[in-house]
TrEMBL record:
Keyword Protein biosynthesis in record: yes
Residue ranges of the TM segments: none
Keyword terms of this UniProt record: Elongation factor, Protein biosynthesis
GO molecular function terms attached to this record: DNA binding; translation elongation factor activity
Gene label: greB
InterPro entries: GreA/GreB_C_sf, TF_GreA/GreB_CS, Tscrpt_elong_fac_GreA/B_C
Gene3D superfamilies cross-referenced by the UniProt entry: Transcription elongation factor, GreA/GreB, C-terminal domain
Name assigned to this protein: Transcription elongation factor GreB
GO terms of biological process kind: regulation of DNA-templated transcription elongation
C-alpha cells in the first residue's frame, strides 16, 4: 500500500481493535483491525 493512499492514511497509528474509516467515491467504508503482522 502506498503511504499516500487513503487506505494507508486511515490505517496509520491504528491498533488491534481499532476501526479504520475511509471515504470512497461510493461512500464511507470501514475496516476492523483484528491483527497486525510484521513480516521480515
Amino acid at each position: 500500500i502506498s503511504i499516500d493512499s487513503p487506505m494507508a492514511r486511515a490505517l496509520l497509528k491504528k491498533e488491534v481493535g481499532d476501526l479504520a474509516i475511509v471515504n470512497t467515491p461510493a461512500g464511507e467504508a470501514s475496516w476492523y483491525v483484528n491483527e497486525i503482522e510484521y513480516v521480515k
